[in-house]
Each structure stands twice: as C-alpha cells, then as structure tokens.
Amino acid sequence: MTSSAITKAPPPMSLLAELTHRCPLQCPYCSNPLRLDPRAGELDTATWMRVLDEAAAMGVLQVHFSGGEPMARPDLADLVRHAVSLGLYTNLITSGVLLNRDSLKMLSDAGLDHIQLSFQDADAQEGERIGGMAGAQAKKLEAARLIVEDGLPLTLNFVIHRQNAERVPAMLDLAEQLGARRVEIAHTQYYGWGLLNRDALLPDRAQLEATEQAVAAARTRFGNRLAIDFVTPDYYAERPKPCMGGWGQRFLNISPSGKVLPCHAAESIPGLTFPSVAEESLEAIWQDSPLFNLYRGTDWMPQPCQSCAFKEDDWGGCRCQALALAGQADATDPVCHRAPAHDRIEQAIAERPETPPAFRYRRYSNTI
Ligand code: SF4
Ligand code: SF4
Question: Is the CB of 336 within 6 Å of ligand 2?
C-alpha cells in the first residue's frame, strides 16, 4: 500500500458508467469482461442517480455512458439530464444500432455533450461479420447522419486488427465524409475477449506500419477538418501504455451491477474484493478501499520498474495484462522490453498462425 492511502488521493477525472452488458453486437475484441453481468443484476435508475451525485461531489468532471450498448437502457436520457444538471460533461459511447431520430432528440434535449460512435469496418459486409450483426452498417451510417444533422459533436471509433487493417484508409475517408470531428484508429488491446481471440486479431508488423502510414497521410490530407487519434498495439511497442493513467489515479469504472473498478478488466484479477456502490459511497471506495490502494502510486512496483525513470510515465503498464501473460498482477507488464516475461509477447507474435482462426464472438452463451 502506498502513502496515498494516508494522504488524500486527488479525485478521478472520469467516470465510465457501464450501464449494461447487453448489446446487439458481438465484437470479438469487446472490452467487457468474459463473465457478462445479466440484465437482472443491473443497478436501477435511482442508484445511478445517486452515483452521479456522489461523482460530481467528489470532483469528477466527465461521465462516459457506456456498455454493452447503453441505449438498451430506457432511462439513459434521464441519467444524461441528471449528469448535465450536476455540471458533468457527458459522452455517449454507442454502437449506434439502436439510435433513431426520436431517441437522439431525447438525448440532445437532455443536454448530451458528445457521441462516440463505433464502427467495425468501412466495408459493410466485413463490418457486419466482425460485429456479428446483419444490417448493422446501414443503422450506423444513419446514426452518424442524424448526429451530425443535430449538431452534436461526433467521434468515430474503429478498432483495428489483422482482418480489417487494410481498410484503414477507407475508414479515415468514411469519417471525413460523415462529418465526424474526430476519429480513433485504435488497434485492439489483448485483454478479455481480445486475448481469447488474439490469434484471429493480432496484425503483423507490416500491417501495423501500413496503418501508421495511412494515418500520417490522412493527417496531411484532412488537416484541421478531422482530428485523428491513433492507438498502437501494445505487442509492437517498446514500453506499455499508462493503463487508465495509472491505477486509481484518473478513472473510475462502474460495472452494470455496481462494482467499482480501477479499469474495466480488473475483474479478471483473482483474489480481489470489488467494492460496490450499493454498499459504500464512491468517495470512500476511491480513497480507502484496499482495491484502489493496491497498485496506486509506485511503492508496490517490482524491479525493473522500481528503479526505472519511466515509472511515473507508464506506471508499470497494465495489471491485467501482467496477470494474463506473466501470471502475476504485480509483475512488470510483459509488453516492456525490460520485463522478465517479455518473451511471452515475442512468443505470441512468433506463433501467430498464418490463417486467422474463427472468431469466438462476445455473447452471453460464450460467457466464461
Ligand atoms: S465492443 Fe461491440 S459487443 Fe462490445 S459493447 Fe461495443 S458494440 Fe457491443
Ligand atoms: S521497466 Fe516498468 S516503468 Fe520502466 S518502462 Fe518498463 S514497464 Fe515502464
């Protein structure tokens, strides 16, 4: 445990509110846990309202309404209106397939600030195969059109992998044509469902380089008309990403059943107790729970992180990736070239099959 358990930790900047794990799509890289929360266990509207009150009181600035598909919740517009009334910046992270003129108007009237719309591909047939939902692309295109017509700022999100990387130029063109202000070209992260499907998703280095070149060319072509965020795949990086900006430092994640997590994948770490908003206040959980203090700061770090100049840049990487690949959540993230378990990354790249295996789709019947 760090000294931050005694000194008050600064408040989180963002709250990710996973309203539900239900979703009409079945993306094989979904960031939801392998064990999906059932509808019957979801928090009710009154509890989410109270959670928003507590978040605003403790200094949270932004709320990201996410899922699953948050538009599956009939109380979404009420929750947005409440968050706006508390002065919180509100972002909706959606697949767009449940959005229509009426539901958009309710959200817009509630004061929603921004929408992040996900696409599985620029190609309709491939996108629908990857997302496991026939007819999804036309609904997404219509959703984008309605959002731009309404005047709400739109960000498109594309998750990139070996089966769609060649169409990154078409994705960037699509974002510009649809009138998005920003687009995320984000290579898959390999936790949870992504790890389960790693051989079907992991690109080779040539594919990664081609996506980097496509992004650089589009930045020149589109200039200020379209902001482009590019997320590289961990497996080809020198150092890990600062997962969630550091454990217990900037983000709170609340699962559909009310568990409060330092990141959306933290439930994959065995032996931890996850506090719930049904039993404790958000402030008490953030400041005092053993979970949030476990990997907060740098005192917990092993070598080589402990004596590394980058330890307050990347915070030793991702605890869930360390567990999945090195077998210990408190190990240095194996992505790091200095990590004792870095060979696991090299091995995964070396053993990547020539032909991608079939996807294991994210659906309740595949829940582990
Ligand atoms: S990644 Fe796909 S399956 Fe997961 S919540 Fe988003 S749209 Fe649904
Ligand atoms: S040794 Fe640890 S702190 Fe240093 S770069 Fe690697 S993961 Fe980051």
Answer: yes
